[in-house]
Fold each of these.
Amino acid sequence: MSQQQLCCACDLHIETEGTESLKIATWNINSVRHRIHLVTRFLRDEQPDVLCLQETKVLNELFPAEAFHKLGYHHQAIHGQKAYHGVAVLAKKPFRESASQDFCREGHARHMGVTLENGVELHNFYVPAGGDIPDPGENPKFAHKLQFLDELTAWFGAERAGSNGGKRMIAVGDLNIAPLETDVWSHKQLLRVVSHTPVEVERLGKLQRAGGFVDAVRHFVPPEERLYTWWSYRAQDWAASDRGRRLDHIWVTEPLVGSLARAQVFRDSRGWEQTSDHVPVMIEPS
């Protein structure tokens, strides 16, 4: 896969407890069955040890598990539903356990967590998009998004309780918020657009602090540098207009920061035929 247009990138070197380093990728695939040929292309090219998918849009029993088995991803934690949402963690090596949380008790498939062989917790999220109107009083979808973030913040705060800040966790996924001014094509024009409003950015900051997370990509990419992972299907020429947003994230807790080396944003994949409007983001060992 071409990496010519990578904005920068970071690698996570996880070698604690005698295990090998892991290459971890995240991608909102926008229907895994419809785009299975693109997912397999990415896996063949980049060979991540773990792939986290969002918006798989398929029931568990219809998930294309065999296609991933053939590529060596024998260990699969899948949480899906028909036509909407859905998350999956696919790995070459076993993980100790897996579990999903039902935030807001909506029955939506928006989270899958696994404990890797080295004891690191990996959480894969698909945060609600929030609709079009950035007012929780007028827009129930936006109210749901804020509630989801609040519950997630409380949950991560409880997860870290008693760990003295030493818990090793990774959070990945489509968080549907672009926090920095340079995470969107126009900060001024998007201040009242869902995904970049001040109330969402504030909530995301609280979530990050509650889990003790560091933004793995921005750990290396300066905040003044523009960085996107999503471009709307509505743009006739997404590359020329470049009206993107950084909605897809990889975070790590402080004990893992010293292992960071590089991360890749696969911008070129947005130009593939019939691709997702999101692109993969990956952390990998040096």
Amino acid sequence: MTPDQIAEVRPRLAAFAAEMLGGLARSDQRAAGELYVRGLLTDGRRKSMQPMAVRLGVDHQRLQQFITSSTWDYAAVRRNVARWFAASQPVEALVVDDTGFPKDGDASPCVARQYSGTLGKTANCQIGVSVHLVNEHASCAADWRLFCPESWDDAALTDPVAAAGARRRRERAGIPDEVRHREKWRLALDMIEEMTGPGGWGVLDLVTAAGGSRPVVAADIGYGDNALFREQLTAAGWQYAVAVKGGTTAHDGGAVPQARPYGGLGQPPKPAYPGPPVTVRQLAIAHAAQVRPVTGGTAPRPARVTPKPP
């Protein structure tokens, strides 16, 4: 947005920021937060502190201190944003994704040489796992976690030298002791539970209260091809649309587990499918006549749009 465009919506933006940051204890924190939001909206590709401060005409230390040193409950702000979106927009899907942030050095928290789908290669980077609230016209990055590689978890390393090095890096980066290595798909399930589970953010209650149905969970192959991820989604009552490899095995949709003979000794055997599973590629070929195109919107490549504040 240009400065003139930001000036035009400034009252609405200030009201929105006040609602989202209302839980911050100090007025200077709320003011710095609103300034930071304005900085993110300004024109310019780089959204780091110094370029944003130049565009805003302020000292970059003010923005830097708010993000890195000022004590405030960022989880509460995320909850406010997620609840605002769910109350003002239909939520048709929870989209699980991750993003890579390239880094030159090794001092940033949890930076390691790892694969990044964003970069399309293995590189020195951080990985952020996120869950987005999505409908056909808008999306909201509602919750996210910084992935902690095993090389940054001294408790997970058996080599004493490597563990000592990880402890030093953790201390230097200020990583809390409770932040440990956890698989990306588990982080995604944690966030879905935080947003929608009992005692959580109440996002699902807001969606259903507005007349919406339970959203589906969508994910790319990095999550969808994990059987444990799919099983836990099913156990929690979620329907999902995820990418899987063609060689992943499954049973036909019409197949039903059948009871097996019981000889009366020990535990009765669990019901089992009558035949072996086949690959999803074989299933797709066998049901080719039922294939139909599915689109995600009217545009060829729908853009992510943040809805305007009320």
Amino acid sequence: MTGSPEVAAAARIGGPGEVLGPERVRAFVAERLAAVDLSGRSVCVLVPDGTRSCPLPLLLSAVHEALHGRVSRLTVLVALGTHAAMSESALAGHLGGPYPDTTVLNHEWWDPASFATVGTISAGRVGELSGGLLHHAVDVRLNRAVVEHDVTLIVGPVFPHEVVGFSGGNKYLFPGVAGQEVIDLSHWLGALITSAEIIGTRGITPVRALIDEAAALVPGDKLALCVVVQSGDDVLHAATFGTPQAAWAAAADVSAQVHVRYLDAPVRRVLSIVPQRYADMWTAAKGFYKVEPVVADGGQVVLYAPHIRTISAMHPEIDKIGYHCRDYFVKQWARFRDLHWGVLAHSTHLRGAGTYDPVAGERCRVTVTLATGIPEERVRAANLDYLDPAEVDLDGWVDDPDTLVVPHAGEVLFRLR
């Protein structure tokens, strides 16, 4: 860090099987931030939106207490990626507060004026990072609030992730507050590898390498407070602090132990009960990503979410192309290459593995069924199966030996041994 000791390795409290009390967390945050020379400097704090389990009121209040009066300017920027903006009332509940002398912003990804360009990654370098899967130069743009502060502090959880392996760390920069170019490239790279292959993969995956390369172009100092949260609530197993790479790696080690469940044999059917934090199918699709690896060939995943009534308000393109396996797009690339690659990636992630050829058509490995508030005609037009949520007997499905029922679906990954 400029004017302070370099944070070479992450500090950590907690671990698998542990529960951290609020005072221990506050003391850890205070101690770690006190060790960094931030006097008179401006700090931009990146945080997740409401689609992740995380005790942000606890974490942000601890950060604010440690920084208020020390720094020249403090901004909290919600890393929406391309999710919907959070309202003032939603932000108040999500972040806690109020936080005096602190600016709170949504990442306005829809507004070109909100971005700054920090460099370009060449086609050759993208080829190296992607293992030869892609050879496209990419402009690296991100929210200008990051560039306009001296220090970026990333605060958020780490979970198994369908695009990058494990979420967190520099992912809060890219795609969290990134321009469309890096979002499209990184997500399509993940789609080419496939969600089932990359999700829950430890270490530096090709997508993580691309994200870290982009983050290296961002000016200013970068730190991260990463946490491992018990899925479905705000209980913390662990907290780590250091550079984004080091803090993420330490937290991912814990997440790999607490957020992955192993089965001895594949299951014929999964009922993923989608929590209220996912407001559309764009985000609720995590209920499929996390269980696809354990479903038998020809099996079925049912996403049960009566509260969801739309596929994606932010990405209407998905209504036009529907959900398809990777090869459906790859083998018809001329039809689809001009669409946002991030939308294509989402399509493949929810549809899962499959094949396509012009004669036999598309054949997907598993059936994906929506038991939601989305009208049947829209579900079937999107190339998914429909089930009236009123017909789902939750108790009966729990007792069915051929069905795995997953409460609070979307954060815990299921894999075969």
Amino acid sequence: MHAYGGPEMLKVENVPRPEPKDDEVLIRVVAASINPVDVAIRKGYLAELVGNRFPLILGMDAAGMVQKTGSKITKFRRGDLVFAFFSLAGEGGYGEFVTAKENEVAVKPKTVNFEQAAAVGAAGSTAWEALIDEANLSAGQTVLIHGGAGGVGHFAIQIAKARGAKVIATGSTANQDFLKQMGADVAIDYTKTKFEDVARDVDVVLDSVGGDTLERSYGLVKKGGIIVTIADDVNQAALDAHGIRGVALRCTPKADVLEGLAQLMTAKKLMPVVSQTFPLADVVKGQEQIATRHTRGKIVLQVAEEPKN
């Protein structure tokens, strides 16, 4: 991208290959995922955080092979198969090569392919940080996950089940079976049923919808519980009125979170669902699909062929 704007701003171009700094690895990208935040960045909504550093290569997460390492890198070496989640200041997954800090990278589990691994970084980390780091979700607790069929939502269901929690998840009519497949104990079709008629006295709400959905959720959380939203700001007056906590989460890369996600994938307790794959040249189609806000699981760009060995 050479400027903010519509999908037509995305161009496939030849640019110089990035060189890793002393504290970075260079990754040869096999697959990268498309996230809703990519659309927000393209439109300029996050210009204050991203800056005007054009040309800009989008892409918050990727999977591939370590091509080169900086002198201060100790955890990785050339040839390692990895997945990564980049900060807003250092994105660039939509390309053949990308650099990453050591704390933005983890070894790719053998239980998933590159497309699945590419899907995990940003969305999986968001679900983990919301449920584990912020909410401290534990066995026996109940969590309500809004938008359970989406990128963050389908990871959140699986992470919550791995923690031993009871999961209530909302989704459209078409996604009811999918929510159950992911592990939801109770699936709510929000087009037919008010979720507040089913979910009461929950310990945690994870909201990826915002607006009216978030407002209607404050009264469902038991005293001392927590709402974590990734789609809106919390209403402090409503939190105070119900005696609960609230966090508007903006996720950042953490090595221990990526490693925790990798452990769950290795144990087959977390399986990324990739609903569509596009070649890099069709990135505009991929962004148009994610912008519908009705994507099941994740959308991934295939950047290169999987390495043979």
